[in-house]
Amino acid sequence: MSASLPLSVVVPVFNEQDNVAPLVREILAALRGATAFEIVYVDDCSQDGTLAALQALKAEVPELRVVRHLRQSGQSTAIRTGVKAARGDWIATLDGDGQNDPADIPKLLAARAAAEPQVKLFAGWRVQRRDSGSKRWASKIANAIRARMLRDATPDTGCGIKLFERAAFLDLPYFDHMHRYLPALFQRAGWKTVSVPVNHRPRGAGVSKYNNLGRALVGISDLRGVAWLIRRSKITPVEEA
């Protein structure tokens, strides 16, 4: 599929019916008149009214596209589904709970305009987290362990708002939970990454889909796997002869 837009905004969602409309309107306010774009929502087999809310919005928002998983598959798969369906050369991602601020997308685009071509990922950095104390402490510990093992020079890999080149992302190895390790994976592929301070907000409605213990147990296995990938990687310069 040849890309025909400069930007696609990909939003994975699971049971976020009350956050859909407010977030879509914020995306429109941030980007209409600034660049050509589309919004690709990926519904990860929601069990509430998320899909109905999205379908209702399509009638009034021509930029909106909706892709639906027929089986719940998780956030990483939903992001990859959205990127594969997207028509943009570059992808901006947002969490569907409203904690990421779409007004920060132009800030990421400005950072890209000022960066060298080797930078393929601009990662949001939540300088002031708006989560519970236990969640902030869990993230702080996880970030310290990740930084020590992967040496990805990234203060916050868990932030949902990111901007990256579509082609570079699709060239990365795919696995469940890969969205938490994108800076390390982009660097493994030979690209540079930049962290950009962004706004962070309390969840608009609904409840979090993660708990600290479950995230930690999965993270230990993932960290070992990503560290193994980095150790086994090889980057070979190529030129046309």
TrEMBL record:
Glycosyltransferase 2-like domain boundaries: 8-169
SUPFAM superfamilies per record: Nucleotide-diphospho-sugar transferases
Alphabetical UniProt keywords: Cell membrane, Glycosyltransferase, Lipopolysaccharide biosynthesis, Membrane, Transferase, Transmembrane, Transmembrane helix
Any one GO BP annotation for this protein: lipopolysaccharide biosynthetic process
One Pfam family cited in the UniProt record for this chain: Glycos_transf_2
Keyword Lipid biosynthesis: no
GO molecular function, one term: undecaprenyl-phosphate 4-deoxy-4-formamido-L-arabinose transferase activity
Keyword DNA-binding part of the UniProt annotation: no
CC terms in the record's Gene Ontology section: plasma membrane
PANTHER family, per database record: UNDECAPRENYL-PHOSPHATE 4-DEOXY-4-FORMAMIDO-L-ARABINOSE TRANSFERASE (PTHR48090:SF3), UNDECAPRENYL-PHOSPHATE 4-DEOXY-4-FORMAMIDO-L-ARABINOSE TRANSFERASE-RELATED (PTHR48090)
Record's protein name: Dolichol-phosphate mannosyltransferase
Lineage of the species this protein comes from: Bacteria, Pseudomonadati, Pseudomonadota, Gammaproteobacteria, Lysobacterales
Gene that encodes the chain: dpm1
